[in-house]
Structures are given as C-alpha cells and as structure tokens.
C-alpha cells in the first residue's frame, strides 16, 4: 500500500512539474474566479463582470476570452491552492497593477448587488498574498462599494 501511495505522489509531482507555467492572463482570470467562487454561488452578473474585466485588461477576442474563462474556472476547481498564480502575478506585475487586480476583485464581489463575507475574506487573503497593503485593500473596497451604490441608485 505504501508503494502505491508513493507511486501516486510521484506521478502527481511529475505531472505538476511537467505542466507549463500559467500565463499572466490565466493567473489573473483564475484569481478572479477564486473570488467569484468564494460564496458558492456563480451569478450571471459576476460572469459578465469577469468577461468585461478580462476583455478590457487583455484585449481578447470573444473566442479567446471564452477559452480563458473556461480554463480559469477549470483551474480553480481542480487546484489545491492558487499560489502559483499569486507568485506569477507578484513577480510579473508592479504594485499598481496588483492594486488594480484587487480593485477588480472588489468589482466582482459587488457585481451581483451585494458583497458576501466569504468574498471579502477571499479578497483579503489574496491581497495579502499579492503584497497589497491593507490601506489599498480598504481604499479599493470603499471605491468599488461607492461605485456599486451609485449604479444601483
């Protein structure tokens, strides 16, 4: 039994090291999907907000955009953790870009009309991992909350 467990661990390690590193677009989309999934509800407004954010951020055509969203959702459902995505964004993006990503996370959290405590917790954790300051975390939350309130008025 121990031998079969060791073989399984070796197979999993070989598969994960053989996989090519994710692109910046996939890493971004996967972290945004993490926020959408945090409250265990996938709302159409959140999917549309994700689609628009990725379209604006990466300038993708509709087919490529759909593929990216599908792949990101598959990655977040299959991944044990999201550290490889966080690490890529932390290494490749400047502080302002990481703050803008946190702002996009808040926009997704408010896309369905309300922010869930689970979404806030997930964004807080991701912001910490992305080395976004608490002040920027709070400021982007407040700005997106105000924007969402203005749209619903």
Describe the structure.
The chain is an all-alpha fold and about 150 residues long. It has a single domain (about 20-150), classed as TerB-like. Helix content is about 80%, strand content about 0%. It has eight helices and no strands. It has helices at about 1-20, 25-35, 45-60, 60-80, 85-90, 95-110, 115-130, 135-150. The longest helix is centred in the last third of the chain and has 19 residues, at about 135-150. The model has no long low-confidence stretch (mean pLDDT about 90).
Text of the CATH class:
Mainly Alpha
SS-derived structural category: mainly alpha
Dominant shape: globular
- Biggest sheet: strands, sense, closure? none
| Percentage of residues in helical conformation | over 70%
Task: Quickly list its features.
153 residues; TerB-like; 80% helix; Co-chaperone DjlA N-terminal domain-containing protein; DjlA_N
Write the layout of secondary structure elements.
Elements: H1 2-18, H2 24-37, H3 44-58, H4 62-78, H5 83-92, H6 95-111, H7 117-129, H8 134-152
Brief sketch in words of this structure:
The chain is mostly helical and 153 residues long.
């Amino acid at each position: 039994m121990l031998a079969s467990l060791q073989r399984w661990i070796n197979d999993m390690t070989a598969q994960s090291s053989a996989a090519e590193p994710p692109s910046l677009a996939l890493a971004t989309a996967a972290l945004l999907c993490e926020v959408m999934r945090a409250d265990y509800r996938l709302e159409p407004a959140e999917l549309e907000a994700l689609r628009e954010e990725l379209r604006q951020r990466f300038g993708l055509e509709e087919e490529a955009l759909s593929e990216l969203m599908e792949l990101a959702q598959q990655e977040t459902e299959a991944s044990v953790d999201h550290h490889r995505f966080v690490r890529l964004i932390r290494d490749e993006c400047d502080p302002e870009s990481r703050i803008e990503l946190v702002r996009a996370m808040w926009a997704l959290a408010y896309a369905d009309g309300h922010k869930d405590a689970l979404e806030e917790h997930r964004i807080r954790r991701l912001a910490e991992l992305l080395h976004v300051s608490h002040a920027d975390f709070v400021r982007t939350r407040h700005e997106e909350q105000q924007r969402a309130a203005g749209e619903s008025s």
